Amino acid sequence: MERKKTIFSGIQPSGEITLGNYLGAISNWVKIQNEYNCVYCVVDMHAITVRHDPKRLREQTLDVLALLIACGLDPEKNIIFIQSHVPQHAELTWILNCYTMYGELSRMTQFKDKSAKNPDNINAGLFDYPVLMAADILLYQTDLVPVGEDQKQHLELSRNIAQRFNFLYGDVFTLPEPYIPKIGGRVMSLTDPDMKMSKSDPNPNSKILLLDEPEAIMRKFRRAVTDSEAVVAYREGKSGINNLMAIYSAATSKDYKTIEAEFSGRGYGDFKTATGESVVELLSPVRTKFNELIKNKDYLTRVYTDNAGRAAALADRTLEKVRKKVGFVKKENKNA
Q1: Does 4 participate in catalysis according to the annotation?
Q2: Which of 304, 12, 24 is nearest to 132 (CA)?
Q3: Domain that includes residue 50, residue range
Q4: Is residue 182 annotated as part of the catalytic site, yes or no?
Q5: Whether residue 183 has pLDDT greater than 60
Q6: What is the CATH number of the domain that holds 222?
């Protein structure tokens, strides 16, 4: 029987997962959870490269964990864990630092962007976090990594580090490939439809959050940018309507021709209302499930503890090979 491929993805614990994250990624993860060995990590170690509120970080980490489960990811079928609970990530990062060139890290565009945004806190972790990202991926002998345009450079660095290590020591790391889902795409900002919907956008009307109340969702869609043509049709030059049609299509499973026929002769107000209602209906069970889960701290603790153990067992297999290859003396288990 053919070996199941492993997919790895790290999720920032911002607590604000958007409709774009859901339609473009998470809903697809739910569909493939029987097809692949899926490892999903709430990357709280990445989150501390910028100044943050520790209390809020703890809350947001649990929020993201609960949201992933509420979206339909089964913690029995997938490994869903908190990064800092598996110290092998930090250990492999240090080792891989010694096989990563300074020039490679200095060319990372996200480091330049984040440094510009945080000029008073350009710390070593901010510079080095692509190596932690490489360790995240390589620890699990990952075959496939879901990546957007902004992460392709990091995946390429992970491959370069793995190839360099493998050249020196043999076949240690699997070379990860980008994963492009069969369905799903980019959901754009509601206020600037030429830009991707982003949780970091300071304008709250630009994005739909999974935990938004129905009233907020409807209000944001009513304010969504369109055009002056007042024709619901998918074509070039209509980025606002194209975006709303893509969202409506994803929420209702209707194709563009069906949508165009449904709203023929009707104004944008009707279409915005229908799109908002379809998203409210889509997200309602997610929000209901999340509210149940976030109150059940015993269940969440059991999930992240058990899953960290499963992740650590996989990570140890890789790390044992790495330790041996670089010449570390094997640590004996005195309890054995």
Answers
A1: no
A2: 12
A3: 6-184+297-326
A4: no
A5: no
A6: 1.10.240.10
